[in-house]
Amino acid sequence: MYINKIEEDLDCGIRVAFKIFGGKWKLCILDAINRGITRPTDIQKDIRIASRRVIEMQLAELLSYGVVEKCAEEVYPKKSEYEVTSFGKTIIPLLTQIDAWGTANAAFVKTRQLELEKIAIG
Length: 122
Known about the structure:
This protein is mostly helical and 122 residues long. The protein has 6 helices and 2 strands, in the order H-H-H-H-E-E-H-H. Residues 12-110 form the HTH hxlR-type domain.
């Protein structure tokens, strides 16, 4: 995990939230685990755009902050699963609201994206 040389302001709630949940795929990973997709390979299949390495790195960060926990079985081949901790479950209602907002505004965003692409092409 990257460590800043400049002291962070962790008195700001938004910065604290972004410290833990900031990252392109962390909320998607958390949503997948909350929906019952617990194995890293299955999470990666659910979030096809993200590489396996990125999924593993962001899982490790969520694990280090206690948002998820890893349950590893001593079998061959090694089997590990993740589950949301009680601390991690505190973000789920907000995640549900973010999902609802995104769903409600998806058509507008898609339209705007096409307009921006047309402008970029010229």
